[in-house]
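Researcher: Here's a chain I'd like modeled. Treat it as a single chain, no partners, no ligands.
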Amino acid sequence: DLSKNSAYAFRYATKMAEKYDAGMIIIHVIEPIPSITKHYMKVYVDESKWEEKIKYEQDLAIERIKKRLQEFCKQETQEAPQCLAQVSSILVRPGYPVEEILKVADEEDCSIIVLGTHGKGFLKQTFLGSVARSVLDRAKRPVFIVPLPYERTGLTIGEI
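Model: Modeled as a single isolated chain. Structure tokens:
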């Protein structure tokens, strides 16, 4: 989700990839625009320009993710190329996070899924749901859940 806390899960994933000489696939999912919003947008924006706008947003998201990873790697290792060498690809997909994470894990034959969780508490997870919980419940492969203690990370990466 590109939050400061996501860098904490990235740290674990990087260490695991280094230890096992594995590659990492980073996925960022852009949730679909609600139907009512699409309806109003189509009134004001030509359909062909709508598709261009979506493509532009995906490209922008990829660049933001790359920039965020480079900033994190510089902070962690002072040498971004070594850290980023573990990243074999960065995917930005439209869709629902749980579905896309599971789909990519299958398509890419991933050995493990590493996810961060915000630890928002029992009631929020019960009523709002949790991407990490849903992936854990539905995955056909190991899932490594990293709790994200923001106050303990000491990260100073700016918001993107």
